[in-house]
Amino acid sequence: MASQLFAKKPLKLLLEEMAGENRLRRVLGPVTLSSLGVGAIIGTGIFVLTGVAAHDKTGPALMLSFVVAGITCVFAALCYAEFASMVPVAGSAYTYAYATLGELFAWIIGWDLVLEYTVASATVAHGWSHYFQDFLGLFGVHLPKVLTNAPFDYDTVVGHVAATGKWFDLPAIIVAFLVTAVLVKGIQESARFNTAMVAVKLVIVLFVIAVGSFFVKRANWHPFAPFGLSGVSLFGHTLFGQTGKGGEPLGMLAGSATIFFAYIGFDSVSTHAEEAKNPRRDVPIGIISSLLICTTLYIAVSAVITGMVPYGQINIDAPVSTAFAQVGLPWAQFLISLGALTGITSVLLVLMLSQPRVFLAMARDGLVPESFFGAVHPRLRTPWKSTILTGFFVAGMGGFLPLRILAELVNIGTLLAFVIVCAAVLIMRRTNPEAERPFRVPFVPLVPILGIASCLLLMFSLPAENWLRLFVWLAIGFVIYFGYGRKHSVMARERAKQAGDGAAQASGG
Q1: Does residue 505 form part of some domain?
Q2: Total domains present in the chain
């Protein structure tokens, strides 16, 4: 049994699978891939999470939070780029783990990616809903209160979860289903739709930086770090920094852990390696360029927003548009709300585009039912069944779970994925030193080690409840793996076949 749990999928086999008939359509170039990365990164981080992080955890030190998170992502992005150039197939970190760490670790990371993309999509749908409501409010239109938010939320004043008096978030549910319909239609149509939205939101982001800078008051940046520059805890026990009423760590590092979710877009680029025209060159370009562009924009926008409005007065649901309203620019609020809707829609599209491709890779390996999760539409060439299932889960979570819980839940899954990918680079360099690497991580082993250390530091900067939720999710995953995946694994069947052939030859001899 142990040999199966740690059986690795040979790199040669992965490359042979690329030539199979049940493949996705290769239509994405470097510009489109970079656009997908920017589409997934720019949006929620700027238009939603800046409010939560600055208001609850960092104050103006949010600027440094984005720097720390960006540097952490650079280490992980370089490791992703090396693997994406070596193994340009669907599956992202799941596929990389299978080739280096074995089947059990591949399942863990695959199951973790399911959590990452589904909860991230629900978080984005929630943020979209509040900007949509803000946009409608400009015209005096208001939805019934009971249909505007999740039925409960975490109250930072009292330090525990409290009822909101709402039923569910209707706009979040609707947008999830609309995006699902677009994704089922096809990757090329989805990519074109995304590229158009990315162009619009980049214009709006540059507008926020250019116009907002005239309304920055330096006094709002003082104190610069009201919650401190640390915020590290170990399973609920704060080691460095201040602690909130609920026991959660506060400070610049805690803010980095909260907004880290905003950077997972470059991970989604690697999930589309199988749909890239020239994946060995284009995927690394898409990963690194999208990360550098977006980190710069994040830092600039967080500086402007915390300079325009005192951090304690920042609106956590629609921070950018309401900041302009607070300084007397309601016309700008209209433009920003419209741009935010466009930008957040593109994030939702890319995240929900990526989730079914992880399922597709797992289905091809027999770890989940291939008849459902591996089904590729004969005409549209999209994993349509799992796309629809993803849409239902995103709609349910976006409609019934609050932003604070969603944002922190997805971060720990993302950071765990990055830790495993960085470790996998070190292992692959030792076990397959002669493998072709069109893109190579520089300064190995330093860069992967720094990636592992920085990701672990941010993981320990999250509240203890996130570790508990992660362990519960992984426990559910183990039940599925040992109940289904281990028995139906393609690698297990292949080993059983080889054992049977060997026994037959021995008896015949």
Answers
A1: no
A2: 1
503-507: average pLDDT = 63
pLDDT digits (tens, 9 = 90+) for 386-402: 999 999 999 999 898 88
The string of DSSP letters for 145-171 reads GGGBS-SEEEETTTTEEEE-S---BHH
Domain assignment of residue 487, given as a range: 2-499
Residues 6+ apart with CB under 8 A from 238: 231, 232, 247, 249
Is residue 508 assigned to a domain?
Answer: no
* Residue type for position 115: L
Q: What is the CATH number of the domain that holds 338?
A: 1.20.1740.10
3-state secondary structure of 374: coil
| Cα–Cα distance, 5 to 201 (Å, whole number) | 45
Q: Provide the token pair at 460.
A: 């320990």
Q: Is 276 helix (H, G, I), strand (E, B) or coil?
A: strand
Residue 506 domain-assigned (yes or no): no
In three-state secondary structure terms, 189 is helix
Q: What is the pTM of this model?
A: 0.79
Query: Does residue 259 belong to any structural domain of this protein?
Result: yes
Q: What share of the chain is helix, strand, coil (3-state, %, to 5)?
A: 70, 5, 25
Residues 6+ apart with CB under 8 A from 214: none
pLDDT in tens, 327-368: 988 888 888 888 888 878 877 887 888 788 888 889 988 999
